[in-house]
Amino acid sequence: MIRPIILLAALLSCTSAAVSGASPSLKPSLRPATTLRLSGGAAPSVPQPSATKSKQTIHDGREVYVLADSDAISAAVAESVAAIGKECIASQGTFTMCVPGGSIVKALSKLPPDSMDFSKVHVFFANERIGEYKCYKGAMDSFVDKCGIPHANVHKVGEGEPAEVAAAYEAEMLKCVAKNDKGIPVMDLVLLGTGEDGHVGSIHPNSDEVMQSGKGKVILPIDKGGKKSIAASMDVFCASSRIILSAAGAGRAPMVKAALSGDFEEWTVPAGLVKSEAGATAWLCDQESVATLNH
């Protein structure tokens, strides 16, 4: 059980270090689980977005909220983050979230600045291209400065070669976030967009990164084709107390059906492997992306 006092102590230590200038076929149903509880005794959950058109619960507990379109999904992402962040801060004094770039981080521009005490929010990144820092820049432009999150609480990926950058970011994450019994950091919330091919973050189908799933890895170095980056592992995603994935458009319908049914070959649909081991997993979809889900 992750107790609030442990979470708070870890984050206070992390913030202190940041201010002082320190460097910064595993189908979901087969993954072992432990039970995380909030201080009030309730299991972590993802609240149903107010604009939900319909809801479906998959056999393994993942929930699918169907919204009108991509704009409604964006609004639902912001609404969910606001509710979860407020709940976490009230119950444990802090809120940690791991975010990607792209449409998800753009959706966070809709976060109301008065929705929670943003001084208690810590932001980590699901993936980042070394030297470009698009995810970091996107977060700063979208919601960090608007909401007043202290820059010391925004955990930017460093510079250097992928292996050393990954090691440093892993150390930062392990220092700042409470761990489960496997030594994996437990985020309060992981946000992920999905690609038509089923990739999440920088974990792509049949890649070396997806094949590290279940091996206790935290941050993975990527050095391919001259592109150097790092990625949070599938283990980090699945250790999170809550996970929200988004999928919009008819082009994602085959992927959504495969990911939620489990009908795919090993490693071919990373999004289908994303499931909180001890909390809640929610998919925010539009009507086009779920059109074939039950057919």
TrEMBL record:
Residues 1-17 form the signal peptide. It holds the Pfam family Glucosamine_iso. PANTHER family: 6-PHOSPHOGLUCONOLACTONASE. Keywords: Signal. Residues 37-56 are annotated as: Disordered. This is Glucosamine/galactosamine-6-phosphate isomerase domain-containing protein. InterPro entries: 6PGL, Glc/Gal-6P_isomerase, NagB/RpiA_transferase-like. It comes from the Eukaryota. Residues 69-283 form the Glucosamine/galactosamine-6-phosphate isomerase domain. One of its GO terms (biological process) is carbohydrate metabolic process.
